[in-house]
Amino acid sequence: MGIFTDPILSSILSTPSPDVSDEQATEIARQHYGLETTAKKLASERDRMFRLRDAAGAEYLLKFTNPAEPPEVTNLQTAALQWIGQVDPGLPVQRIRTARNGAVELRLAIGESPLRTVRLFSFLQGRPLSETVGTTNQRHGLGQTLARLARALADFRHPSDSYELAWDIANADRLQPLLTYVRDGEKAKLAQIALERFRTIAKPCMSGLRTQVVHNDLNTHNVLVDAADTDKVSGILDFGDIIRTQLVNDVAIGAAYHIAAGPDPLQGPSEFVEAYQEITPLYPEEIELLPDLIATRLLVTVLITGWRAERYPENSTYILKNNGAAWDGLDRLAHISPGTAQRMLRTNRTR
């Protein structure tokens, strides 16, 4: 199957988002939300986002979805955030503000672009986790926050929650055509090994694992921590990859970003997993697959970001922000036997 004949790669990830100016964002905030603000464009993978600030210092996030994203998928994200706000209002996620007409989603054509969904969010304050030095306590708080988030979403249902998403690691084998974009021979070998282990070991077991709607993208750029106490999570951002998939995939994704240099590269992931299990214990069969699913997340990251960076070189710095760390993580995992990795992720760590 060719890259662009596969629906998970042929639409939103292959469609550039039409530009929106600061002035257009400011006018839409005024006209549709009654806000007098200044706007500053923020970096984004596939949408257009603006940080709005009014004269009193109040801040908001105005988001214009990619026109290729189906409205029902955008509504999945909106409905999930509303649900979380009702089920666990203490979770640090964004709140959606209604427009003047009472709608939480607007369908607007910006300039010459097709119709796209526009939403206004609260602006969460904090320091990006990616800019901090990770600690055991920080990973503990993060693991517990993700478990709380998954628990809040456990009973959430939406007609579009099972749509096909390239970033769903349950679909990793469908990304094989992207291996052609890995030019380095050693990296290509790492990627091929990870893909083959997913196909032969993890994939056959996936259908028997519990599933639910999950965040699906807890990378360090999607987490804010308190500026005064960087061990405290102050925000979980970007629900753009929310999907119904195996629950353990969400854990693997969160753990994948805590592999580090040193004699025990899985110390960070195991601390994260231990904290998660204090709220939601994993089943033995889920723990058994965790090492391969962590590697699969790293694989999906390097394949999609490498491919998209070639397609959109003007945005490559943002697209590749996790690429280098993902390759490093794949390399470190390749030097740990699956049995050892399973034992390390199963062993409780003393905080």
How would you describe what is shown here?
It contains eleven helices and eleven strands. It is 42% helix and 14% strand. The protein has two domains: 3-122, 2-Layer Sandwich (Phosphorylase Kinase, domain 1), CATH 3.30.200.20; 127-346, Alpha-Beta Complex (Aminoglycoside 3'-phosphotransferase, Chain: A, domain 2). Strands 1, 2, 3, 4, 5 and 6 form a six-stranded antiparallel β-sheet that branches. The chain has a three-stranded antiparallel β-sheet with strand order 7-9-10, with helices on one face. Strands 8-11 form a two-stranded antiparallel ribbon. The model has no long low-confidence stretch (mean pLDDT 92). It is an alpha+beta fold.
List keywords for this structure.
single chain; Aminoglycoside 3'-phosphotransferase, Chain: A, domain 2; 351 residues; alpha+beta
Give the terminus-to-terminus CA distance.
Answer: 48 Å
Give the domain tally.
2
Portion in beta strands? 5-15%
Secondary-structure element string = HHEEEHEEEEHHEEEEHHHHHH
Q: Classify the oligomer.
A: single chain
- CATH level 1 class label of the largest domain: Alpha Beta
Percent helix among the residues?
Answer: 40-55%
What is the overall shape?
globular
CATH topology of the largest domain: Aminoglycoside 3'-phosphotransferase, Chain: A, domain 2
Q: Based on helices, strands and strand pairing, what is the structural class?
A: alpha+beta
Mean pLDDT: 92
CATH architecture of the largest domain: Alpha-Beta Complex
Main sheet properties? 6 strands, antiparallel
Q: What's the CATH superfamily of the largest domain, by name?
A: Aminoglycoside phosphotransferase (APH), C-terminal lobe
Low-confidence stretches: none
Count of β-strands: 11
Q: Helical region count?
A: 11
Radius of gyration: 20 Å
